[in-house]
Design brief:
Strand order of the largest sheet: 1-2-3-4-6-9
Strand content: 15-25%
Number of strands: 9
Radius of gyration: 17 Å
Distance between the termini: 34 Å
Largest sheet: 6 strands, mixed
Number of helices: 11
Helix content: 40-55%
Structural class: alpha/beta
Shape: globular
Length: 253
C-alpha cells in the first residue's frame, strides 16, 4: 500500500484506485509495487471475483512518473529492466480474474497499454489515449506490440505506437479496446455495475472462459521481456537522452 494508491474490496470486486491528482496520477515505483500486490493477493482469494482499476474522476493516469522512472534507471542493457513496473506487467500477464478499467480523462503510456490486459474497458467522453514512447526515443512496452495489433489491427497499432497519435474515446471504442463510452465522472460507477454483473456469474465458468480468450501468460511475458530489453537499450541511446533533456527543459521553462 502507498499513499497514492487505494485498494478496497467491495463485495466480490477489488477496486484499485490511483490517487495522485497533483501529478495526474503519474505512476511511481511504489505505486507499481502496490498495484502488483493488489492483483497478486487477489489470485487465491475466492471472495474476489473481479478487479477494477481506476484513476477516479477526471484523470486515469499520465503514465510513468518520468523523474521517478529515471532515478530507478535500468539494471543492465543486456537484461530486461528489473523494476516494479515490470513486476506490475507480470502481474497483469498472470492474472486470472476479470479486470475492468474505468478511464476518465487522460490515459498516457502504460495508462493505455495496461488496458489491453483488461477484459472490459469503460471510457468517459473526455478520455484520451496516447502512447508517446516514440517522442522520447523509446519503444512500446507492456506487450503492447503484441496485443495492440491483435486487438485493433496493424495499421491502427502503427499509428498509435509508432507515430504516437492520440486516440479519443469514440475512436477507441471503434478500434475495439473500449467497450462503452459514458458521461464524464461516471466511469467508476458504471464499472461497479459491470463488476456486479460479472460477479453474479458462475466463477469457475468465467475463469475457464476467460482463459480460453486470452493469450497464454508465457507468450505475454516473453514479449514483455523482449520489449523491456530493447527499452533498456533505448534509454541509453542518444535519441532518448536528448528527448528526456528537452522534456525536462520544457518542464522547467
Amino acid at each position: 500500500m502507498t499513499e497514492h494508491l487505494i485498494v478496497a474490496d467491495d463485495h466480490h470486486a477489488r477496486v484499485i484506485t490511483m490517487r495522485r491528482p497533483e501529478k495526474k496520477n503519474a505512476i511511481t515505483q511504489s505505486m507499481y509495487r502496490a498495484m502488483s500486490d493488489a492483483i497478486d493477493t487477489a489470485q487465491n482469494n475466492p471472495d474476489i471475483r473481479c478487479l477494477i482499476i481506476t484513476g477516479g474522476s477526471g484523470v486515469f493516469t499520465a503514465g510513468n512518473d518520468l523523474e521517478d522512472f529515471l532515478k530507478a534507471g535500468t539494471a543492465n542493457a543486456d537484461t530486461p529492466r528489473a523494476s516494479n513496473a515490470q513486476k506490475f506487467l507480470y502481474s497483469l500477464a498472470h492474472n486470472t480474474k476479470p479486470i475492468i478499467a474505468a478511464v476518465d480523462g487522460v490515459a498516457i503510456g502504460i495508462g493505455t497499454t495496461m488496458l489491453f490486459h483488461c477484459d472490459y474497458v469503460l471510457a468517459s467522453k473526455t478520455a484520451t489515449f496516447a502512447t508517446p514512447f516514440i517522442h522520447l526515443g523509446l519503444v512500446p512496452e507492456g506487450a503492447s506490440s503484441l496485443l495492440m495489433p491483435r486487438t485493433m489491427g496493424h495499421q491502427r497499432a502503427f499509428a498509435t505506437l509508432v507515430m504516437g497519435r492520440t486516440m479519443h474515446a469514440d475512436e477507441a471504442r471503434e478500434a475495439g479496446f473500449v467497450n462503452e463510452v459514458v458521461a464524464a465522472g461516471h466511469t467508476e460507477a458504471e464499472a461497479r455495475k459491470v463488476a456486479r454483473e460479472i460477479c453474479a456469474l458462475p466463477a469457475e465458468a468465467v475463469a475457464i472462459s476467460r482463459k480460453l480468450l486470452k493469450l497464454p501468460p508465457e507468450d505475454l511475458t516473453r514479449r514483455i521481456d523482449q520489449e523491456s530489453h530493447l527499452f533498456g537499450e533505448r534509454m541509453r541511446s542518444k535519441e532518448a537522452v536528448a528527448a528526456f533533456q528537452a522534456f525536462f527543459k520544457r518542464k522547467r521553462g
